[in-house]
Every structure is written in C-alpha cells, then in structure tokens.
Amino acid sequence: MARIVMKFGGTSMAGTERIRRVARIVQRQQAAGHEVAVVVSAMAGETDRLVNFCREANPLYDPAEYDVVVASGEQVTSGLLAMHLQALGCKARSWLGWQLPIHTDDAHSKARIEGIDAQALLASMGSGEIAVIPGFQGLSDKGRVTTLGRGGSDTSAVAVAAAVKADRCDIYTDVDGVYTTDPRIVAKARKLKNVTYEEMLELASVGSKVLQTRSVSLAMKEGVRVQVLSSFIDDDAPAADTIPGTMIVSDEELEGLDMERQLITGIAADKNEAKVTLTRIADRPGAVAAIFGPLAAANINVDMIIQNIAKDKGETDVTFTVPISDLARTQALLEERKDTIGYYRMLANSKVAKISVVGVGMRSHAGVAATMFRSLADRGINIQAITTSEIKVSVLIDEDETELAVRVLHTAYEMDAE
Ligand code: ADP
Ligand code: ASP
Ligand code: MG
User: Fold this and answer.
1) How far is the CA of 182 from the centre of ligand 1 (A)?
2) What's the mean pLDDT when you consider all of the chain?
C-alpha cells in the first residue's frame, strides 16, 4: 500500500465527462489498496475567464479581491469531483484551502505556502475517505483567501504530498510526460523518461508550463517524488500509473538511469514577459537600486536585466523584463518615481518572447550559447537580450518568431524525434 497524492489539471477537469473519468482513475487507485488524496484545478479556461473579470473591473485591481474571485474555480471542481466519487460508491469529501488550512503568506496573487495542517487530512485518508483539495488556494495569517500564482495547483499538490509524507505525487495532465519542448508546438518533440529536479526547475521557470516552478523547487527541497502522466486514457487501459510518464529524479539517480544523455534536455518559450526600457538614466551609484527597489517592494519579479554601456555624457539605458501581468503596475510605479530615478523616457514592449535551452550537460560542454546565437542568426532572428545560468541560456526575441526559433533550435541541438 502506498500513500499517493494525485493532481488533475484544468483540461482533465473540464466538464462532467472529464471529471467522471478522473473519478474512475482515482477510484482505481484506491481499489488497488492505496491511500489517496486528490488536488484539482479549475476547469480549463475558467481561471482566465475570472482574471478577465478582474481586469475589466479595474486594471489596477486589489490583489486580495482578485484572489477571492479566482480561487472560486477550484472550489467548484473539488465539490464536483467529490460528488462524482460518491456516485461511484467511494467515501469522499472536499477540503477547501481555508478548511485544512493551507497556510500561506499574504503576497496576494502569488502567495507562498508556509505550512499545511495535515492531521485532519491524515485521519480522513486513514478512514478510507478520499480527500479532494482545491489547488491554487490558501489562507493568509490575516484570515484572507490567497492564491499561489498561475499554475499553482501543481504546488498545492506537492505541498500536500510533503505534508502527508506521500510516497509519490502524480501530476496528471493532457500530455503523457515532459517532452524536449512543448509537443503542441514542435511535432518532433521527444518524451523524456527522466528529468532532474534542477533541469525541471529551470525548464519550468523559463516557460515549460507543464509544472509550476514553485512545485519543482518545493519537491526538490522536501524530497517529494513527482511523476508527470496523462489522464487521457481509455477505461480499459492499464491503471494510469503503470503507463510510464516522466519521473523527476535527482542527479545521482539520473546517472544510474541514463548514461547517454543529450547535451540539451529541453527548450522552452515564454511569451508572458514584457520588456521595459528606461532611457538616459544618470550613470551613478544607486540609480539601478532606485528602479528595482520599489518593484521588489511591490512583489514584482524582474527577470532579465541589461544596463547598456554608459555614454560619454554619463548616461545609460536600463532594460529589463517583468511578467506582462505586472506591466501596468510596473509602469505606474516607475512613472510616479520619474523624478527620483531621473530617466528621460519609459518604453514598454509586450510583444517579446524568451527562448531558453536547458541541460545539465552544459556544465561540461562549451559552445552551447554559440550554437544558439548562430542558429538564430542564420534564420534572421534578432536577439534583444541574453541571460545565462550554469545549465541554461535564454534570449529575448520578437514574439512573432517564437515557434520558428524553438523549431530551429530543436533541430540544431539534434533533438528531433525520428
Ligand atoms: P494542466 O492544466 O494539467 O495543469 P498545463 O496546461 O498547465 O496543464 O500544462 C500542460 C501543457 O504544458 C501541455 O499541454 C503542453 O502544451 C505544455 N508544455 C509546455 N512545455 C512542455 C514540455 N516540455 N513537455 C510537456 N508539455 C509541455
Ligand atoms: N487554475 C489555476 C490556473 O489556471 C491553477 C492551476 O490550474 O494550476 O492558473
Ligand atoms: Mg498547469
């Protein structure tokens, strides 16, 4: 007998038929003798719909009220799944974020989980009841509903798995594993049997939305075994968890599993960032701090940063990227501080995409970045910004060239499936 946390994403929960299928997958796992808890997402498209209502209400909406609105999608699906399980004769009940509770900080719209009270959950699971938990939501110590950032149900699932010391956290989605790149963009993408935590962390953080970044860092920190697999299987197929998905493994495990690793493990694209440039800032100590201090205080994550070489006049341009969802607030904050920062103009462009190549093989091989720059140049794709880490190279390009760039790089690094 194992203790398993199963998480089902938005497409798996989109409508009565799909939820019924999920209920059968869960029932099967329990019938196999396992203790199960289930974490669910809102129906596909529902969170986007709710976010739009908030934007229409006020582009500079109050994040605490945004959380009240967007957390509702998961409340609906958790109740529905509990009903479907009951209809199959299972004992099941929902546990909303505030009922467990799932404690978070109060960074509304991107809260971090601080802890989960697991006693009630363990007692429920131990009694043969299936606990159904809405993902994405929590409770701040001020007693208000919070949400964990888009894609946050993955993080809820891993946190629940850590709290109940689950043997495994199975993330069921609409693809049957983690691929070399988004299989919906590149038909020649290959499924990976194993990915290391570190690679998955980089891939997620640069746009492979198959797992939310925080879920991967939490799994790494808490040592949760995570598997990605598909919920789109026929009823007469073998139990879902006997069909191999992708296992997230440690570096040491990988060495034993896969000696012939490719240099690059995956390629990701992210269209959710916007580029901001402040021109003619005084080239003096403290100038950059005056820009990024207020953004950090407002919980806005800045990603790529470039400070151009100072011109003779002692002036410099600073370019950086922020999530598109934070662009309006970023512009408002910097506009307010125009005199203190002392810039001339603020330019913003949300028609950009960040393309990244990731692989632990990069540590021991030179030339990965050079191949990237050359392959993009050969197709006339212009690079607007670059960042690197030990196992990743990212470039910012025009959004219209995203698909082309990913395909070109997939071929250039010899990753195309036969
Ligand atoms: P869910 O609703 O189940 O949480 P998501 O839409 O968040 O599902 O994540 C699954 C999607 O992630 C897939 O449909 C796929 O298009 C996308 N994706 C992006 N990069 C990858 C990748 N490297 N491997 C697999 N899927 C990927
Ligand atoms: N429903 C939320 C979203 O769409 C959380 C999730 O599905 O993981 O972002
Ligand atoms: Mg997701």
Assistant:
1) 7
2) 93
